[in-house]
Amino acid sequence: MWLTVLIPVTAALYALVGHASVSFLDIFRVMAVDDLSDWDQDADGLPGGITLFIGAVFAAVILGTAIVRQSTTEFGTLKAGAVMSRAVAFGGVALGLLNAWVTDRWTRPEAVGRFVAEDGGESDWGPLAWIAYHAAWLLPLAFGGAAVAALLWLAGSHGRGRWAGTKAAEIKEHGVMMPGTIRRVEYTGEWVGGEPQFEVTVTYVGKYGPRQAVERFVTPTVSAPVRGGLVDVWYDPLGEEGVVLIELNERSTSSMLYPD
């Protein structure tokens, strides 16, 4: 619920950041396209633009941190928070720069494709001048593309089919692994992909002492977990208590407990 408020407000602040940044980016652009070395004549509104830029950045960063925390809670992974915050930032800046381009806030060059000297001489633009000239639409395109890429990654890695794998990979990367012991195994009566499903109760030592967790596994009958078997239990010491990843291993089955 909080994300529905945080995301648009933070995006609006970043849009203000993008729009305010034009006040000083435009000076460098004019210097490049008009071959100027003195920017004093174009810097009259610079102090106000920088003040607005810094203020908007400060507020946006604070709300962006809130998005990181809330997204981490909603999606259950640390990467989700970082990517969501990045997507909002890039998207907001893109909107601000797009608005500056649409409203023609960038200063137009004296002559497109040519440097015009005070003595009337002319020379062709180089690559830098052309890049600076097209920066008005290239910048919103670049930031917008980065925002879309971040959202696509988030959707792909946290979709219904891949969310569990993403969470498992993250808890392995940042978490702590402890051995667990199987205390109970029950056949659920269901078959998945031609193999039986078992409900397994595991005990392990968590960050606050002995804990118990229940997980369901689909395994071949010959590799079914048994009471007394061992498992690997992963948990995040900084995360929510009881949120764990349980994995069966070669010591979870009867073949290892009672070898031939």
Question: How are the SSEs ordered, and which strands pair?
Answer:
Blueprint: H1 2-33, H2 46-75, H3 78-102, E1 114-116, E2 122-124, H4 127-157, H5 163-174, E3 176-192, E4 195-206, E5 209-218, E6 230-235, E7 244-248, H6 254-257
Antiparallel strand pairs: 1-2, 3-4, 3-6, 4-5, 6-7
Top keywords for this entry?
about 260 residues; alpha+beta; five-stranded antiparallel β-sheet; two-stranded antiparallel sheet; 6 helices; 7 strands; about 20% strand; elongated; disordered C terminus
Please provide a written account of the structure.
With 260 residues, the protein is an alpha+beta fold. 52% of the residues lie in helices and 22% in strands. It has 6 helices and 7 strands; from the N terminus they run H-H-H-E-E-H-H-E-E-E-E-E-H. It has helices spanning 2-33, 46-75, 78-102, 127-157, 163-174, 254-257, and strands spanning 114-116, 122-124, 176-192, 195-206, 209-218, 230-235, 244-248. The protein has a 5-stranded antiparallel beta sheet with strand order 5-4-3-6-7. Strands 1-2 form a two-stranded antiparallel ribbon. A hairpin with an 8-residue loop joins strand 6 (230-235) and strand 7. The longest helix is centred in the N-terminal third of the chain and has 32 residues, at 2-33.
Integer-rounded radius of gyration: 29 Å
Enumerate the spans where pLDDT stays under 50 for 5 or more consecutive residues.
Answer: 255-260
N- to C-terminal separation? 57 Å
Quaternary state, please? single chain
- Helix share of residues? 40-55%
Average pLDDT level? 83
Strand composition percent: 15-25%
Q: What is the number of helical segments per DSSP (H or I, 4+ residues)? A: 6
Trace the largest sheet across and list its strands: 5-4-3-6-7
Helix/strand-derived category reads: alpha+beta
The run of helices and strands is: HHHEEHHEEEEEH
* Main sheet characteristics: 5 strands, antiparallel
Q: Which term fits the overall shape?
A: elongated
Number of strands: 7
